[in-house]
Design a protein that fits this description.
Layout (H helix, E strand, L loop, with lengths): L6 H21 L24 E6 L3 E6 L4 E5 L15 E6 L3 E6 L4 E5 L15 E6 L4 E5 L6 E5 L2 E5 L1 H6 L3 E5 L13 E6 L2 E6 H6 L3 E5 L21 E2 L1 H9 L17 H9 L2 E2 L1
Helix pairs in contact: 4-5
Length: 282
């Protein structure tokens, strides 16, 4: 008969065993390494010792969860704690108690079996929405899924589904829990004039920044502004292509100066033609 451990001591031992075995399973072939008191064969892992993804240690029995969702039990079976109830499938987690066990199913329900002292195997209703389990000598724990309400979040010129806190953190407008982007009726995004490489277009501020442009403000219009660089023949920058710009071309003739409007590396007849074709106000 093994030495009876206190709850805390046994929890520590279970944690160590689970951590070591899980690391082995993840890093190698999914086999389990067990050590310590094996008076009841609890350290003798049954063959085939492979394809395990989780482990749990009871008082004098052991459990392993397989990749196919089944549970294997071995060791002391005085109360049938190693006899997993059918259907032995669809398990995603397992926990070992003193002479009882818990298995968490994919549907969020808990299966508890064998020694039922203190009602250990009577899972409270509703037996749904569990995401984790833990078992001790005289009590169990089940963690319920935390549902965070979500809804439509209007942000920029689009809509995403998220929770209120995330929406507000991103600077969006939360339309309410359980709202849908298809019917939320997000406000029309604000737009304005955006200058990109001398060209102007009316788009949202976010879109303008993505293009590397300069946003001139909400409700601005391209007809009312002149984007910098939109009049390349205005060499002097006085918003008019005139004789002053013509003189700049002539004074810089044959060089690579600021009058090289075409950007071919030299001020020549092509730049002169640019000035003449753009003559007048920008």
């Amino acid at each position: 008969m093994g030495i009876r451990m206190t709850g805390l001591t046994r929890i520590v031992a279970m944690t160590v065993l689970a951590a070591v075995c899980s690391a082995n399973a993840a890093a190698q072939d999914g086999s389990i390494v067990a050590w310590g008191n094996s008076d009841n064969g609890q350290c003798e892992v049954p063959e085939p010792n492979e394809n395990f993804v989780a482990v749990a240690a009871g008082y004098s029995h052991s459990l392993g969860l397989k990749t196919d969702g089944s549970i294997v039990g071995w060791g002391n079976n005085a109360y049938g704690q190693c006899d997993v109830p059918e259907p032995n499938e669809d398990f995603v987690a397992v926990a070992g108690g003193y002479f009882h066990n818990l298995g968490l199913k994919t549907d969020g329900s808990i299966v508890a079996w064998e020694w039922n002292g203190d009602g250990l195997c009577d899972v409270p209703e509703p037996n749904t929405d569990f995401v984790a389990v833990a078992a001790d000598e005289t009590h169990n724990l089940g963690l319920k899924r935390l549902d965070i309400p979500a809804g439509a979040c209007c942000i920029g010129d689009g809509c995403v589904s998220t929770n209120e806190a995330a929406c507000l953190d991103a600077g969006g407008v939360y339309m309410g829990d359980d709202t849908d982007c298809a019917t939320a009726g997000c406000p029309e995004p604000l737009t304005g004039a955006c200058c990109v490489d001398g060209a102007c277009s009316v788009i949202t501020e976010v879109a303008c920044l993505v293009l590397g442009g300069t946003y001139l403000g909400d409700d601005t219009n391209c007809a009312d502004i002149t984007c910098p660089g939109s009049c390349p023949a205005d060499i002097t920058g006085d918003e008019t292509v005139d004789v002053l710009d013509l003189l700049e071309v002539l004074s810089q003739w044959g060089t690579a100066g600021s009058a090289d409007i075409t950007g071919d590396g030299v001020v020549d007849v092509l730049d002169l033609l640019e000035v003449l074709s753009a003559w007048g106000p920008c």
